[in-house]
Amino acid sequence: MKQLMLGNEAVARGAFEAGAAFASGYPGTPSTEILEYLAPYEGVVVQWAPNEKVGLEVAMGASLAGVRALVAMKHVGLNVAADPFFSASYMGVNGGLVVISADDPSMHSSQNEQDNRWLAKAAKVVMVEPSDAEEARWMTREAFALSEQFDTPVLLRMTTRVCHQTGVVNLEEPLEAPARAYKKDILKYVLLPGHARLRRPLVEERLVAAAAFGNESDRWNPAFAGDVDVGVITSGVSYAYVRETMPGASILKLGLTNPLPLERMRRFAGQVKKVIVVEELDPYLEEAARAAGIRVEGKSLRPYTGELNLTLVEKALLGEARDKVTVSLADVEIPRRPPTLCPGCGHRPLFRVLRDMRVHVMGDIGCYTLGALKPLGAMESCMCMGASVGMAEGLARFGGPDLEGRVVGVIGDSTFFHSGITGLVDMVVNGSKATLLILDNGTTAMTGAQPHPGSGVDIRGGQVPRLDLADVCRGVGVKRVVVVEPYDMDNLEKVLAEELAAPEVSVVIVRAPCVLNERVTFAEPVELELELCNKCGLCIRVGCMAIREKDGYPEVLADLCNGCGVCVQVCGEGALTIPEKVGA
Questions:
Q1: Theoretical Cys-Cys bridge with 396: which of 63, 172, 199, 407, CB 3.0 to 4.6 Å?
Q2: Contact, 135 vs 127, CB < 8 A?
Q3: Which CATH entry fits the domain spanning 2-216: 3.40.640.10, 3.40.50.970, 3.40.50.300, 3.40.1280.10?
């Protein structure tokens, strides 16, 4: 049976077919849909974790119990999970354990562009890389068996174009996973230094065995015979571009990429006159080939940064791109559509107030990162999940008199549960005077409204215990905790001023629903009385897509406006009014 599937959907199918009993992770583009597609399958326990580290640790516990387990995350999520990931390599597994890293070349939705093939090499675990949706299915299915065969976590490395492409997938009947009871094994599972030293040679032996397997595997590392003038070594989505560019070429397509099948690569190179390596991002394959004495070209023919595409691969392999019927964007008038907060979003009035108060805002990862962009321009940093808390503490402590009482950290509710709590503990214990703002909309809005520990529901919509943010903050020692809604901007400014002046750490929970997730409508669309407007532009500087400038005056777009009233509050002339509250 065949079915069209998204790459992430195919991964979920592969896990189901492999008999996986447990799956966890934290939402992050481009990996998010994997767990969402896996959740409807019966017989699999699927749950969101507070962060990737916890997700991997629970999956490791499930593996020790003897069941097959999966944990999914984006590439930076593997940084968060690196501690258990590296140690799990020494421990090995019982039931198969598959760790998915969804890398994001070109940073479509990420703060950095990292190549996690190096993490597989550094952690000394087996790694596999699908190039399309069907391979995503069968490689996931078979990765659990590899994990058990070589006693290792297996890193399944996806990239954005593999995650989000759609392809024909061959459905197979689910396997009955081999029964593996939990067995107490202190030497294997307790990584005391003495035990870890005993495990260390086994890790190397495992890699040797896996390399021998890869050298002889036509399925995992197939070679396609063709023109002997040029041979191409490639992997992942790059293979698709190579195949389309040079369908008659000799190609070695690597699906098992750690440990690399160097003998197979050497044999392939001996059958062609010239070898070119085509890969995205770092020269991972190329450097390994050169170190093994295989003469190859690669990095000099392609860009070091960003994802590949057909044009770039054509230039690399053919010297120039083929002529195509294309339309240049320079020839088409396309309206600019910069990213912006949704109409009625509660983050907008908050950042408007923060901007006007001229405070220094240490930001974080989420929709609210858009508060850094004009016209709001109120956020001054964004590094990684949870960093706003510690950065606010550091800036407030060492920023000098000019910054005293003027530093806040801004973090979302999901991000706070992910990695903000420990930063807040540090603020409390070390006597910080910074103020932390937790933007609470009850969901993980940026990645598609996934639940988190403060949502009260699980991935399947079932009711679960809900952690109250205010209780959590008080529980770690914060004495000043205030809950406020953002749409009354005068009161919001008053509360912020009071907390910024406090001689101790304080937390302001700014609570408002995600207007996109809950389809919130506050009132009928705002109305404009032109004769009262003085063209000051304050309403435009709110930065709402539902109000724009036309002939010097504001124009309200009734189909977008949901009557939140922020623009009305900043209008000093009374030109903007809300005609009727919904439900009034």
A1: 407
A2: no
A3: 3.40.50.970
